[in-house]
Amino acid sequence: MRERIVLHLGELPLHGMGMQSATWWGTLAFMLIEGTGFALAIAVYLYLMSLATTWPINAPPPDLLPGTLVTLILLVSLVPNILISRWAAQQDLRKVRIALVFMSIFGITPLIVRIFEFPALRISWDTNAYGSAIWLLLGLHTTHIITDLADTLVLAALMFTSHGQNRRRFGDVQDNAMYWNFVVVAWLPIYGCIYWLARL
């Protein structure tokens, strides 16, 4: 009779964090897909710009103030976002709860400014190819802010209930922080295209 080797897995944690989590890999894959979408939209913008004799087409450049304000808000939000990821790794529930409230505010604030940003483009989405391209870029990014804000609000609600004691939720907070970093970094080339290439 052959001896059987049996692995005892009872001591393994039920949920991993960071790269040990399937959710982390799913978030990374989602960011790669969405990053490709942003890259394609920017490529369309650059292609249309290369074909046009003047750029922007029949419109003045967008007003810099709202877009720059959104950029500053997003960059400042990286500080609490990095901290929340660190505190989630330490499973510090009190600090994570406070940071989630701050990150919810940082998710809402650029959306309020963005209400003024669309009119500041100084062109309608259906006026010409230039208008369609910049509205597409701004609309795509707005969708991603809304997506992350919804996730942050759900996580905040969970962390203020008994679900906050679940170790898995800290991993979810880390994944959400990683996605917010993506939202911020993705905005920078879009901001450059919309607001600065139109001024060259």
The radius of gyration computed from the alpha-carbon positions, rounded to a whole number of angstroms, is 21 Å
Number of helices: 5
- Approximately how much beta-strand content do the residues carry? under 5%
Secondary-structure element sequence? Answer: HHHHH
Low-confidence stretches: none
How many angstroms does the end-to-end distance come to?
Answer: 80 Å
Q: Specify the helix fraction band.
A: over 70%
Shape: elongated
Mean pLDDT: 91
Major sheet characteristics: none
Summing up helix and strand content along with how strands pair, one would put the structural category as mainly alpha
Count of strand segments = 0
In short:
By secondary structure, this protein is an all-alpha fold. The chain is 73% helix and 0% strand.
